[in-house]
Amino acid sequence: MNQKIKIQLKQITKSDLKLLIEWRNSNKIFPYNTQYFLLNSKTQTDWFNSLQNDSSRKMFMILHENMKIGICGLIDVDHKNKNANIAIIIGKTQLHAKGFGTMTLSNLLNYGFKKLGLHRIGADVIEYNKTSIHLFEKSEFKIDAIYRDVIWRNNRWWNMYSMSILKDDFNEI
Amino acid sequence: MFEGKFVTLRALEKEDLPSLKEWRNSLHVRKSTREYKLLNMINQKNWFESIHQSNPPKDIMFGILNKRKKLIGVTGLTYIDWKNRNSEISIYFSTKNWQAKHEAKEVINLIMEYGFEELNLNRLYVEIFSLMKENVKLFKKMKFIKEGQLREKIWRQNKWWDTLIFSKLAKEYKK
């Protein structure tokens, strides 16, 4: 990991929605999400509004040198069982494979374990998303389960890896 | 109505909700389901409304009747994902130790028949808390395949428990 990379997590505002639509609908990102329809300003505005009073989703914009480079967060936050899932999109795809994902993940783990007091953080990844599987493994995630034939994409079935890290295995940044 | 040798599945009605509430609040059901609050009739009515909201439905629930037409349990398909043709199976009975009975196996067979043969689903799964050994045994017996174990995912009885994922694919389903 490149320790010199500096990122900040900031609140999402309505003015970010256009950028999010552009990222999420792009060919480099769309295939890696389970979302299967293209987003428009209506779906994004509804999503943004639904976030506001929802304690099960904590979403942030990722900033690097004041530039918005992606979106991330904890979803499916289960406060009772202290469990949540990771979501990360590095929207500026020219910044892929430069350590921004790793840095974002480590920020989110810190936030989840230290601030929210979670016990377990999971991530569900489609099997062809090798980069993400590698990223999570590098950060001490283990593969808990492989859901068989659970996603239909590109005219065939794909498995989904369900990965997780427990609080005890988390090394602070 | 889906009829088997021991049980019949019928649609749930509003009148069933008081019984369901009582069963879901009983210890043997509570320790196997994600719900951790005690349910009241407001919860039950809201739930009943909510499962009728979407079209196509996300949840399809049935009452289980025994030979004497008495309601003895509830089953259904939940979290139905029509795009990826995937769904979770839900099942519980009014009394405990139901897992070893003929009725339980027949209910799962009827729900698989409905899910695979009628709805053309591709994968049916269950998430079982590791404290529910009886359920693990039942789904193994029904030839569901274990896909893995989500570590320390739930807190019950003063400790962490794993949850086990079992599934059956359409290509593995035999009548």
How many H/I helical runs of chain A? 4
What structural category characterises the helix and strand content of chain B? alpha+beta
State which percent range the strand residues of chain A make up. 25-35%
Oligomer: heterodimer
Summed over residues and divided by their number, the pLDDT of chain B gives a mean of 97
Helix content of chain A: 25-40%
Rg of chain B is: 16 Å
Envelope shape of chain A: globular
Q: Tally of extended strands of chain A?
A: 7
Count of DSSP strands of chain B: 8
- In angstroms, what separates the terminal alpha carbons of chain B? 18 Å
Percent of sequence in beta strands of chain B? 25-35%
Poorly predicted parts of chain B: none
| Biggest interface pair, counts | A-B, 23 and 22 residues
Order of helices and strands of chain A: EHHEEEHEHEE
Low-pLDDT residue intervals, each spanning 5 or more residues of chain A? none
Portion of residues within helices of chain B: 25-40%
Shape of chain B: globular
Radius of gyration of chain A: 16 Å
